[in-house]
Amino acid sequence: MIISRLFCLAVAILLATPGPSSAAEPLSFGVLTAPPYGFALDDKSVSGSNRDIGALIAEKAGLTFTYRLEPLPRLVNDLKAGKLDLMIMFPTAETRPFAIAEIMPNSTVILPPSGNTFPQFADLKGKTIGGLRGAVYDQQFAAETEIRKYDVDSYRMGLQMTRSGRIDGMIGPDFGLYYQMKLEGMKRDQFGPPMILNTRMLYLLGSNAITPELATRLRTAVEDLRNSGAISAVAAKYLD
Predict the structure, then answer these.
(1) Could you say which DSSP state residue 207 is in?
(2) Average pLDDT rounded to a whole number, residues 189-195
(3) Is the predicted pLDDT of residue 14 greater than 70, yes or no?
(4) Following DSSP, what letter does each residue of 151-162 receive, concatenated?
């Protein structure tokens, strides 16, 4: 009888122990290695707009996050495998089921070299356009086989190759590309006028380990931050 009671007590304790996606333990938050969304400071700590927004969400929701700076493909794979709890990105068809809350809009643009322009989408055919490895910014662009896609590891590399004429343009979110230009001391007149492909929403994504209750808590925090202007203020800090 005593052994049976002890066994029941042990089971009850185990069931009451918070899981990895509960508020009792830190949640892992993936930060994309692409300024201004994410970059490492001199002391190796993680910084960037996604990290700043993550910190606001954690404070608002009363949670603790740990931050990982990784390339996009690794973050997506770990999110799908349940090795990463949260991240911010433009959702694709593959990652849309993980969407929790809207963060902020970004326009997707293609920047050509100075003196060039793309008045319409058909003008991209036969051109070589750089893009961040693993990113899908526009479905029509991704599906067009007559556009040559050139994978780059950073916005910096793509912009430098575009400016020097090694590729015909660089695709990406205007927020990320313009911040990188500012960081590198590049001028807008070193590039042609941007071709706007779409305006897309950045989302907070959560792995399947995030419970419905916790997802609601995170969603409420994000909505409060967005409505108060706190998220817009983070973005403005990186462009002003």
Answers:
(1) -
(2) 96
(3) no
(4) EES-HHHHHHHH
What integer pLDDT is reported at residue 239 of this predicted model?
Answer: 82
Would you list the domain boundaries of the chain?
24-105+200-237, 106-199
Residues 64-86: tens digit of each pLDDT: 999 999 999 999 999 999 999 99
Backbone angles phi, psi at 195, to 5 degrees: -95, 120
Has residue 12 got a pLDDT over 60? Answer: no
Q: Which whole-number Å values give the CA distances from 171 to 1, 108, 194, 197, in the listed order?
A: 70, 7, 9, 9
Whole-number Å distance between alpha carbons of 167 and 159: 9
Residues facing 39 on adjacent strands? 47
| C-alpha distances out from residue 211 to 83, 152, 220, 221, Å | 15, 36, 14, 15
Tell me the pLDDT tens digit for each residue of 116-170.
999 999 999 999 999 998 888 899 999 999 999 999 999 999 999 999 999 999 9
Which CATH number describes the domain made up of 24-105+200-237? 3.40.190.10
b/e code 66-86 from CB counts within 10 Å (16+ = b): ebbbbbbebbbebbbeeebbb
- Measured between alpha carbons, how far is 69 from 5 in angstroms, rounded to an integer? 47
Fold match flag (24-105+200-237 vs 106-199): yes
Provide the CATH topology of domain 106-199.
D-Maltodextrin-Binding Protein; domain 2 (3.40.190)
- In this structure, what DSSP letter does residue 165 have? T
* Number of other residues whose CB lies within 10 A of the CB of residue 94: 10
